[in-house]
Amino acid sequence: MDMISGLRDAAAATHRSMHPELVAAFSLEGRTAVVTGAGSGIGRATAIAYAQAGAHVVVADLHAVALTETATLVEATGATATVLPTDVSDKAQVDDLARGAVRATGRIDVWANVAGVIRNSPLLDLTEADLDAVLAVNLKGAIWGCAAAGRIMKSTKRGSIVNVASTGGEMPAPTLVAYATSKAGVIQLSRVVAAELGPFGIRCNTVAPGFVDTPMTQRSWVGADGAFDETKRTAAVDVRRAQSPLAVIGQPADIAYAMLYLAADASKFMTGEVLRPNGGVFMA
Ligand code: NAP
């Protein structure tokens, strides 16, 4: 055996698994993480990633049955879950969610504002109902989440809040006036919260995903007859792939790993920042 292969074998023998220091940096062991929008897509994947990292996960969404399914997936990782159906656009319900999380485990270490809705409409046709619906969930919901989390985290002098924006929050596109402005607001929300709550040991960052294959995006490929239009999907996905230097679209787990990084101590030097898992379609 030559010297190089000898050294390589010795290194392999001592580093068969991830180094404990790295494990600790990404671990949420002993922590409680609240995830909104956890009944579907990116929220569900985030809840699972937090569970895989060892957290007790408090899952919140409008849909109780979907939350129970998420809780089953969380528990399959060996972690524990608390299910709390919540409408994030209602401040009182978000405050109840925080109280429920504290009742379950006595603490909140991580709060992920993932719940969101989209309405596509040209500016000139935008209805007040659509604008209100988008702002109520995407912006107001995230603000109430930050406030509820901040109130608890301030008392323990530590915590990480992760808000979900979108490429649309920074890159203009037609028909997205309600959605894109709400997500631009989320990016600035994280910065203000980071500035205001940083002195209490609380971090606040944004994940701004590109196009991800989730029920939210799949809904746009349902035809007028209610049937899923595979041709429409393929065409839309091809367009998105063409925008990426990697020729990819995102999967929920791609975003969940960014959510985990910002939740964990691995990112303890980051606050007020935007992390952009988007396949390279937009580089700021
Ligand atoms: P999704 O599959 O539709 O999941 C979002 C979940 O949030 C759904 O269960 C939704 O319920 C729920 N929700 C809606 N309004 C709520 C409310 N008032 N209170 C509590 N929960 C509520 O969407 P997703 O694609 O995973 O998106 C998750 C987040 O990522 C959103 O903030 C979205 O804007 C953002 N994002 C997504 C993409 C993408 O390409 N998918 C890209 C960039 C950013 P309903 O099904 O009833 O609406």
Could you characterize the architecture of this molecule?
This protein is of the alpha/beta class and 284 residues long. Helix 5 packs parallel to helix 6 (128-156). The chain has a single domain (3-212, 251-275), classed as NAD(P)-binding Rossmann-like Domain (Rossmann fold). The longest helix has 29 residues, at 128-156. The radius of gyration is 20 Å and the shape is globular. Strands 3-2-1-4-5-6-7 form a seven-stranded parallel sheet, with helices on both faces. Helix content is 49%, strand content 11%. It has helices spanning 3-14, 20-26, 41-52, 64-76, 91-105, 128-156, 177-197, 215-218, 230-243, 252-263, and strands at 32-36, 56-60, 81-83, 110-113, 159-164, 202-207, 274-275. The structure holds NADP nicotinamide-adenine-dinucleotide phosphate. NADP nicotinamide-adenine-dinucleotide phosphate (NAP) is lined by residues 36-37, 39-43, 61-63, 86-89, 114-117, 137, 141, 164, 166, 209, 211-212, 214-217.
